[in-house]
Amino acid sequence: MNQISPLAFVHPEAKLGDNNIIGPFCYIDRNTILGNSNILQNSVTINYGARIGDGNEIFPGASLSTKPQDLKFKGEDTICEIGNNNSIRENVTISRGTASKGLTKVGNNNLLMENMHVAHDCVVGNNCIIGNSTKFAGEVTIDDNAIISATVLTHQFCHIGGYVMIQGGCRFSQDIPPYIIAGKEPTRYAGVNIVGLRRHGYSNDQIELIHEAYRLLYSKGVLKEGIEEIQNNLQITPEIQYIIDFVSSSKRGIIR
Fold first, then answer.
1. Pairing of the two strands 63-66 and 45-46
2. Concatenated DSSP letters for 118-131?
3. What pLDDT is attached to residue 174?
4. For residue 221, what pLDDT is reported?
5. Contact in structure between 154 and 137 (CB atoms under 8 Å)
6. Residues whose CB falls within 8 Å of the CB of residue 234, separated by 6 or more in sequence, listed in order
7. pLDDT tens by residue, 124-139
8. DSSP state of 5
């Protein structure tokens, strides 16, 4: 049974699962789906097109599935999909998609800290931690297990790899490859995220192999040549293949 405050508004066409708690002054629009066992604290807004899974906690002032901040948006019928067991803190805003992809997606088990923004058509993976006031422009992709500190500004279309640690206050317009620490000004490669990898169970041998891959990659002025060095000199484990695929498919280039 859902617990809905008499001071909340839930549109008759909204679809709610079971065991949800809807606090006072929450607003849930039409064409929305809310799963089971979610907690919406006071003053949460769930806008048109939201698809929210189970076990999420959403804090005061958050506004999900907002109209995209994109002048090309002409009112097309798009959605914002949020998975399970996310903690979405105060004043977080997540836009729904545009005609480009039709979908903004946030996965499972993420912590989105206060006042951060996920723009239209972004894809956020699973188990990510995203700091206060960090902003993602449109069509940014964040892979699983990324840690992105506070007040980070990400240019549209950028790709952030898995298991990264991005220093607070960074701003960048190129892709951040997986397993690394990114920091300084301008944002650049600052080593392998050794502590993060160990916390995720990576062995010393795996970490050393990743480190050697980046040594070879960045030893060449042309990334294609760096990839060839990796392929010719290292064992191609899943981690190394991920690095190769990420760099090879980068449209914006990677930080150096």
1. parallel
2. E-TT-EE-SS-EE-
3. 98
4. 85
5. yes
6. 209, 212, 213, 216, 240
7. 999 999 999 999 999 9
8. -
